[in-house]
Amino acid sequence: MIKRMLTGGILAGFAAGLLAALLHFAFVQDLILLGEQYEYGDLVHFGGAGEAPATGHDHMAATGDHAAAPDAAAAEAAAEEPSDFNRNALTVIFTCLTYASYGILLVAGFALAEHFGRRVGSREGLIWGIAGFVAFQLAPAMGLAPELPGTVAADLSVRQVWWLGTVLATGTGIALFAYGGNVVTAILGAALLAAPHVIGAPRLDEYYGAAPPELGAAFSANVLGVGLVTWAVLGWLAGRLWAEPEAG
Amino acid sequence: MTTLNQTAAKSSAGLLSIAFVAFVGATVLFLAGHAQSATLHDAAHDMRHATGFPCH
């Protein structure tokens, strides 16, 4: 049984990860590279020339006021960066790994549902996938928008704790709505969905972005779009493999 | 309903196996998405930004 769960989750996850990587290079990677040009000072947005605090991005922290010495910062960055091929190959590998982990978690959820007598096939899987997108990407993004490289944000560990708490609360909240079946579980579900946003994500008091806001907005929108498509495919595929392992 | 539950119980996984599989998934997710070792961070950098994980 463990083997069936892991095999289905990993297979669906890697397939979805390859799709995510393809969509990443079509919709997201160019925006990341453009964001880095603003981060390193190769490009300067007319409104974004403020000083970044020392608590910011690694590269900024290392170079201090990067806007004052763009050439030095760019040269250092270029020396640190791997080749495009290596960089993109690692992105493909880690995207597949991440979606494999989502696939495994999703299938563990299928098994839990089946343990309580609920069948999951490709149709239910599709809905689970969309719910997974909401829990793992959309709800966290409403507090911590996907960050363009160079974004200066609050303390990392505090953001990670909020991210994890939001994923757990949102996932449990959706499950209570879907499978609870009475008013009490629906109210509890709504409270769990709202709680992370009532508590509030860790944010800084000021904005330090060097890149144009349009670029950050396009990046966030594309990241969420790619996430939704990939999660839907992941859920559908994982549900199909779960219901009919031999069909895969 | 009883029949359904019995069928499900026969074919479904135990809670312990489910917890184990969920733990495996969470571990992979932590390593790929959230661990802060410099090597892992650099290798996973673009993916972390593109999945909306808190990165830096």
TrEMBL record, chain A:
Pfam families: CbtA. It comes from the Bacteria. NCBIfam families: CbtA. InterPro entries: CbtA_put (IPR012666). This is Cobalt transporter subunit CbtA. Keywords: Membrane, Transmembrane, Transmembrane helix. The chain crosses the membrane at residues 89-113, 125-142, 162-195, 215-238.
TrEMBL record, chain B:
The chain crosses the membrane at residues 12-32. Pfam families: CbtB. Keywords: Membrane, Transmembrane, Transmembrane helix. This is Cobalt transporter subunit CbtB. It comes from Albidovulum denitrificans.
